[in-house]
Amino acid sequence: MAFWTYMLRCSDGRYYTGHTDDLEHRIGQHQSGQGSQFTRRRLPVTLVWSEAFSSRIEALEAERIVGGWSRAKKEAMIAGNWSSVSHFARPPRERFSTSACPERLPSQAVEGLETNGCGGDEFRGEDAS
């Protein structure tokens, strides 16, 4: 018997994550207003993602994990964009580790206000040399 973790997109754009042992029946319940209170108030709902598991415990754990993800990470998974899922799995401060502007300590001088001291000349169309 398969157990499913699934995600619905509600009419207000929010996502609902759940698990079941009968995906077709459960989606029908949600769509007819007999599902959770969350989806009942946000009809219609659309199935946007599902995955089968071999045990209820695995499906429940997947529901807990996926339900806790950010909207951006959920949307990357729905789109099948696994590099973005991996990107959004990192803490925000680690997502953009490379920068054209080197980090400075607050005590370091700022060269210009327009660009916070990083590359101001090329943004004004002036030659930096």
From TrEMBL:
> Sorted alphabetically, which Gene3D superfamilies does this protein's record hold?
GIY-YIG endonuclease
> Residues in domain GIY-YIG?
1-76
**Can you tell which superkingdom this protein's organism belongs to?**
Bacteria
| Region feature Disordered, mapped onto this chain | 96-129
The entry's family comment says:
Belongs to the UPF0213 family.
Q: Which PANTHER family match?
A: UPF0213 PROTEIN YHBQ (PTHR34477:SF1)
Protein name, entry field = GIY-YIG nuclease family protein
Q: What is the lineage of its organism?
A: Bacteria, Pseudomonadati, Pseudomonadota, Alphaproteobacteria, Sphingomonadales
